[in-house]
Specification:
The complex is a heterodimer of chains A (about 50) and B (about 800). Chain A has about 50 residues and is an all-alpha fold. Chain A has helices at about 5-25, 35-40. Among the domains of chain B are: about 5-65, no CATH class; about 85-170, Alpha-Beta Plaits, CATH 3.30.70; about 315-410, Distorted Sandwich (Calcium-transporting ATPase, cytoplasmic transduction domain A), CATH 2.70.150; about 500-530 and about 635-750, 3-Layer(aba) Sandwich (Rossmann fold). Chain B has a 7-stranded mixed β-sheet with strand order 16-28-27-26-17-24-25, sandwiched between helices. In chain B, strands 8-7-9-15-10-13 form a 6-stranded antiparallel β-sheet, with no helix packed on it. Chain B has a 6-stranded antiparallel β-sheet with strand order 18-23-22-21-20-19. The chains are: A mainly alpha (about 50), B alpha+beta (about 800). The interface between A and B is medium-sized, with 31 and 38 residues.
Chain lengths: ~50, ~800
């Protein structure tokens, strides 16, 4: 039955990783500008041609 | 407004502009006077064409592909030396975020940022100037952070580059003060994350315990309980810390705020759980405790949504420039920071520049626009050696003024030293809040109930005292009350902002609901900030006379002359002779044999009786016939309807900085029983609000300019009406989008209704409390029951509050979705 302890330990560890990722992303200002990121992902590489 | 749909972006292969004939390729404005044509593209002005050329030459034409007509109108040229003051190292260094002598980081606020193209262009600044290494836009706050090399280029060059491509940064006196802008508080987010993590895991570990009757091995029970205890430590010491802190602060001020009974319940739950676990008598209530802390934190976050692009705490410093041009003794000019400006300094004031401090005009034709200070819409001509006041704007050619008072001691700026500005309105609102009052009674009732339970068990079965008293304090935690108010407020703030009303914080909602008196400002609030309609009385002009008047006034640059000329429309210009303009008085000229005078009553020689009766803005005299020209305000189109609606429920007043010329029309608009006051100084307005409050009034002030700043601050709720919500607004409690002013009555009704919604959800939560108490006083509360009751009550309260408030809002004709 000690398998249960291992499983609980693993699940806590995984959840802890996600918590860490969450704190990291907040600290990294990822939630500061939500609109900007959505626009940036639509840019293509700059085309040099003139209109 | 800019709706960047992806579909639109895809089909924006440049299409022949002939389809949208006469639309400026850069800014999308109709090309009225100018049609500049290059590369088969039309531009409305030289400015727009210039920006296009710069962008095109640098291969950045994606700018026009991402969004059609992304630019801002460049019709108003920027003066060459406007940013000369940035060459001054002392001033420039105040703006830097960081510099090591070469690599420099600076952040500007650019109000013009509005679409994908803006973002794209501003993040490709390095293509325009190699000395800029990086630029990053925060679209939400409209801030641009630029990294550049100070050895190779200068701050002035960077700012001028931004200005030439149409993104002029807004730099004000305020920027030199802050240096640590109010950062969005992340601590609560961390708390929520950590508490959520602990809550979830404690729940999982407690689950076997709920099913204990199925049989569970003892060794697991112990391990699970101790793990829960371990996980509850961060919840208690970190997540719940703010409840302890606010409760303690309240107690220090001899106040029982809502956090006090909550803190008490958390402490008791925690200690009892520790006791049960250590003594091996039970599993405690750690799951319920962490759940409640988690939901309460979530509620507070929902309620405290902030609008980061809007600022509610501006004072005159946000309007004033950083530096002005000072004339030295030998005629040399230099830039001087406003903070170093002293009395007797001579300041050179160019078109559109703000007078930094009270001063005397010493040279040039001063035509000062005081709309900032007084709300009076027409510029005033000031003679030499007369006073001009801080906050006024010079219009026209440059003037020299001599400073006679320090910046902070000027007529307008000294308003901010009034004690009304030293009060913390959020704090006052909280003290005044009915939630606060309720929680006080709640606490006392709770304590007496606990006492009675204790006494009862002391008589009947002393062994049950501890368990029943603690259980009851745990169950009766007013967390439901807190949750109902926070989630209702959060939802209301969202509904309000979708309908164009942005509140500073949730405490304003309740104040808005309590309002019984509404005070309006006139200029810019009930009237449109620009535009007039004209009315004539006295002698009515013939067509021939209209031509004559037009020929005379069309040569003058005075705003009144311009308004009169445009009202007369395009007419034949007749030859005129002896044309003279006397600044501040009027015009005189001859058309043929007719002598025409246009200007003030005195200048036109109007008889006294006529002046008193007419009170017109301009008098025009053709030979002996006098015509009075009235400038009528143009009301915002929704105003008559909303005033009619509001009059039924509220007392109304009007405060105007203007003279009483338009009294008649306004009296018709407001009808009886409304007080209309004219020629009110900013301080008069403040005092008027104060006198209403002394008579028990709860005052809502709606204004728009710096001249209302005092009244907005003094009132219970001060709403600033803004034509563009990103524009600069004085310090206030709420900003209302002028386009949505027709929703004002509905918004006020919703604020009134919010109190009943909170009461309703509170009633529901009381029922849960009573049910819980029923078991608790008998000493029957099992952890499983608590674990079921807690999320049920929380969920139902959240559903009730948000559901009912949304339903009510919809029935009042407010939209629930944001327009974007």
């Amino acid at each position: 039955m000690s398998a249960l302890f291992v499983v609980i330990g693993v699940s806590l560890g995984v959840a802890g990783l996600f918590l860490g990722a969450f704190i990291w992303s907040v600290k990294d200002n990822q939630f500061e500008d939500q609109k900007g990121a959505a626009m940036r992902m639509l840019y293509d590489e700059t085309s040099k041609e003139k209109l | 407004m800019q709706a960047v749909s992806e579909k639109e972006m895809k089909r924006q292969a440049p299409k022949p502009e002939r389809e949208q004939l006469y639309i400026c390729y850069h800014c999308g404005a109709p090309c009225v006077t100018n049609k500049i044509n290059i590369d088969e593209k039309l531009f409305c002005c030289e400015g727009c064409k210039l920006v296009y050329e710069i962008i095109n030459d640098n291969g950045l034409c994606d700018y026009y592909r991402l969004q059609s007509h992304p630019g801002l109108s460049q019709i108003k040229p920027i003066r060459n030396d406007k940013y000369a003051y940035l060459d001054d190292d002392v001033i420039a260094s105040k703006l830097y975020d960081f510099t090591d002598g070469d690599r420099t980081i600076v952040t500007f606020y650019i109000p013009g940022v509005h679409c994908t193209s803006c973002l794209w262009l501003l993040e490709h600044l390095n293509k325009l100037d190699r000395n800029i290494s990086e630029s990053r836009v925060n679209f939400t706050t409209k801030d641009v952070t630029i990294h550049f090399s100070r050895r190779k280029t200068s701050l002035r060059a960077v700012v001028e580059l931004l200005a030439t491509i149409g993104y002029e940064p807004y730099i004000s006196l305020n920027d030199t003060d802050k240096k640590n802008p109010p950062k969005y508080d992340k601590r609560r987010i961390y708390k929520l994350g950590i508490t959520g993590f602990c809550f979830g895991n404690i729940m999982m570990l407690s689950f076997p315990e709920y099913l204990a009757h199925l049989g569970i091995e003892a060794v697991y029970v112990h391990v699970f309980r101790y793990m829960s205890l371990l996980l509850s430590l961060p919840v208690f010491f970190y997540g719940a810390s703010e409840f302890f802190i606010t409760a303690w602060k309240g107690l220090q001020q001899k106040m029982l705020n809502i956090d006090a009974p909550i803190a008490l319940a958390i402490v008791i739950t925690f200690t009892r759980s520790i006791y049960e676990i250590l003594s091996n008598t039970g599993s405690g209530y750690l799951d319920s405790m962490s759940g409640i802390v988690f939901f309460m934190l979530a509620g507070r976050i929902v309620q405290e949504r902030t609008y980061r692009s809007i600022s509610f705490n501006r004072d005159y410093k946000s309007y004033f420039p950083i530096a002005v041009t000072v004339v030295l003794a030998d005629g040399v000019t230099e830039t001087k920071m406003l903070s170093n400006l002293k009395e007797k300094d001579l300041v050179l004031l160019r078109n559109d520049e703000i007078i930094p401090a009270d001063a005397i005009v010493v040279g040039g034709n001063a035509l000062i626009d005081y709309s900032f200070v007084t709300g009076e819409s027409e510029p005033v001509a000031i003679k030499r050696n007369e006073m001009v006041y801080a906050g006024g704007k010079q219009t026209g050619a440059q003037v020299t003024i001599e400073i006679i008072k320090p910046v902070a001691g000027s007529y307008l700026t000294s308003l901010w030293s009034h004690y009304a500005f030293s009060q913390d309105k959020t704090d006052n609102n909280n003290k005044d809040s009915s939630i606060h009052l309720l929680s006080k009674y709640f606490t006392w009732v709770l304590f007496s109930l606990a006492l009675i339970t204790g006494i009862y068990w002391a008589i009947h079965d002393p062994s049950k005292i501890m368990s029943s008293v603690t259980a009851m304090l745990i169950v009766a935690c007013p967390c439901a009350l807190l949750l109902s108010s926070t989630f209702t407020n959060g939802n209301l703030l969202r509904i309000f902002s979708n309908n164009g009303l942005f509140l500073r914080d949730q405490t304003v909602i309740e104040q808005l609901g309590k309002t019984d008196h509404i005070v309006f400002d006139k200029t810019g609030t009930i009237t449109q900030s620009s535009g007039h309609s004209l009315m004539l009385s006295g002698h009515q002009w013939t067509e021939e006379e209209k031509n004559m008047v037009f020929s005379v006034v069309c040569h003058s640059n005075h705003p009144n002359s311009k308004a009169l000329a445009s009202w007369l429309g395009s007419r034949t210009k007749l030859p005129i002779a002896d044309w003279v303009e006397m600044p501040g008085r009027g015009l005189e000229a001859k058309v043929g044999d007719n002598r025409i005078l246009a200007g003030s009553a005195l200048f036109a020689g109007v008889p006294k009786g006529v002046i008193n009766e007419e009170k017109a803005t301009v008098y025009v005299r053709i030979n002996d016939e006098v015509t009075s020209v009235h400038f009528l305000p143009v009301f915002r189109s929704a105003i008559p309807a909303i005033i009619h609606q509001l009059r039924r429920k509220y007392s109304l007043s009007l405060l105007s900085g203007d003279n009483d010329r338009q009294k008649k029309i306004l009296e018709e608009l407001f009808e009886k029983n409304s007080e209309l006051l004219f020629e009110q100084s900013p301080l008069d307005k403040l005092h008027y609000i104060q006198s209403l409050q002394e008579h028990g009034g709860k005052v809502l002030m709606i204004g728009d300019g710096l001249n209302d700043a005092g009244a907005l601050q003094q009132s219970n709720v001060g709403i600033t009406l803004a034509d563009d919500i990103n524009n600069f607004t004085p310090s206030c409690d709420a900003i209302l989008d002028a386009k949505k002013i027709n929703l004002l009555p509905s918004v006020l009704r919703l604020a009134v209704a919010s109190r009943y919604i909170i009461m309703l959800s509170f009633a529901v939560s009381i029922m849960y409390n009573i049910a819980g108490l029923y078991f608790a006083v008998q000493g029957l509360l099992k952890p499983m029951m608590a674990a079921i009751l807690m999320p049920c009550s929380t969920l139902s309260i959240v559903l009730i509050t948000s559901g009912v408030s949304s339903l009510v809002a919809r029935s009042f004709g407010l939209s629930l979705r944001s327009e974007e």
